[in-house]
Design a protein that fits this description.
The structure holds two protein chains of two kinds. Chain A is mainly α. Chain A has one domain (about 25-145): Four Helix Bundle (Hemerythrin (Met), subunit A), CATH 1.20.120. Chain A has seven helices and no strands. Chain A has helices at about 5-10, 15, 35-40, 50-75, 80-95, 100-110, 120-145. Chain A is elongated. By secondary structure, chain B is of the alpha/beta class. Chain B has one domain (about 20-160): Response regulator (Rossmann fold, 3-Layer(aba) Sandwich), CATH 3.40.50.2300. In chain B, about 45% of the residues lie in helices and about 20% in strands. Chain B contains seven helices and seven strands. Chain B has helices spanning about 5, 30-40, 50-60, 80-85, 90-95, 105-115, 125-155, and strands at about 10, 20-25, 45-50, 65-70, 95-100, 115-120, 160. In chain B, the strands form two sheets. A five-stranded parallel β-sheet of chain B has the order 3-2-4-5-6, with helices on both faces. In chain B, strand 2 (about 20-25), helix 2 and strand 3 (about 45-50) form a beta-alpha-beta unit. Classes of the chains: A mainly alpha, B alpha/beta. The interface between A and B is medium-sized, with 36 and 34 residues.
């Protein structure tokens, strides 16, 4: 493979939707950007189960596990596990339009042992309340679709 | 004397008409479902695994993939390591690879590109972005496979075998 395609994604909407690294006030963001979810309707097959409901169900099943992993990682001062769990939740959250959660996860990804996880506890508290908002919003959307 | 029907049998040559398969490796169930739904809609059959080690295992015995879509950061074996392995085996070498990433780690991207990642798909992505990247990825591999593809796409390639 000799052609560089890296430039292509710079022209996509990535820059617009990517959560900013700088400290984000999660309460100021909507829990979910519904336009992101609606964008997936175009791959919905007729007669098949609702794809968006399936995506929401997978997220709701997986998210508490990742949150628990982060809490455990901070309790055990395990920087690598914290980074991995935060990284993973960031990806799925941003993919479904939960940018507030994604932004907090990104901050958690960069918490290091060097600051003795001081900021991690505060960030996790914010993440828990933002996650609760996201769960409520997803549950409402799920009900609306069924 | 045998009848004409018995003298000649017309058989379809073994043209593979199954949809082309794409290997998808991601540890996140949400991303797996998203990628699967989009590529199925594009007419491909996804073969889905949940981490790098599983992807490695599948590739040990199966190389019948039109492309591979791998998460850059997975448990056990990361995307870049899988590509590195794929580039050492002749049967896997031709499979073009897309890496899904939420990194903006240019060092890791450069390393992945150097070992053979053809395109990078940043998370979050839209269906249109994945489709675009997939088409670019496959255009690239079509250049390599073009002569073979022309034979495969010939709609009714009949083989006539005479007997007796």
């Amino acid at each position: 493979m000799s052609t560089v395609y890296i430039d292509v994604y710079r022209s996509t909407h990535w820059e617009l939707v990517q959560p900013t690294r700088a400290s984000v006030d999660a309460s100021s963001l909507d829990a979910i950007n519904m336009a992101v979810l609606k964008g997936f309707e175009e791959v919905q097959d007729e007669g098949e189960p609702d794809l968006i409901v399936e995506l929401i169900d997978l997220y709701l099943e997986d998210e508490p596990r990742k949150l628990a992993s982060m809490l455990e990682a901070v309790a055990e001062a395990d920087e690598m596990s914290l980074m991995r769990a935060a990284h993973s939740l960031k990806g799925s959250s941003a993919s479904l339009g939960a940018f507030g959660v994604a932004a907090l996860c990104e901050e958690l990804e960069h918490v290091s042992k060097a600051d003795s996880f001081r900021s991690a506890v505060a960030l996790l508290n914010r993440l828990e309340s933002e996650s609760a908002r996201v769960r409520r919003a997803f549950a409402a959307e799920r009900r609306r679709r069924l | 004397m045998k009848g004409a029907e018995e003298m000649f049998s017309i058989t379809l040559s073994p043209i593979d008409r199954r949809p082309p398969r794409i290997l998808v490796a991601d540890d996140d169930p949400v991303i797996r479902l998203l990628v699967t739904a989009i590529i199925e809609k594009e007419g491909y059959t996804p073969v889905v695994v949940g981490d790098g080690r599983e992807a490695y295992r599948v590739l040990q015995s199966d190389s019948d993939f039109k492309a591979a879509i791998l998460d850059m950061m997975m448990p056990h074996l990361e995307g870049v390591e899988i590509i590195r392995h794929m580039r050492t085996e002749k049967r896997l070498m031709r499979i073009p690879v897309m890496l899904i990433t939420s990194e903006r780690d240019h060092r890791l991207m450069a390393e992945s590109f150097a070992v053979g990642a053809a395109v990078f798909l940043p998370k979050p992505f839209t269906t249109g972005q994945l489709r675009l990247m997939l088409r670019m990825l496959l255009d690239k591999s079509e250049e390599v496979d073009a002569p073979l593809r022309r034979v495969k796409e010939c709609p009714e390639r009949l083989a006539v075998h005479g007997r007796g």
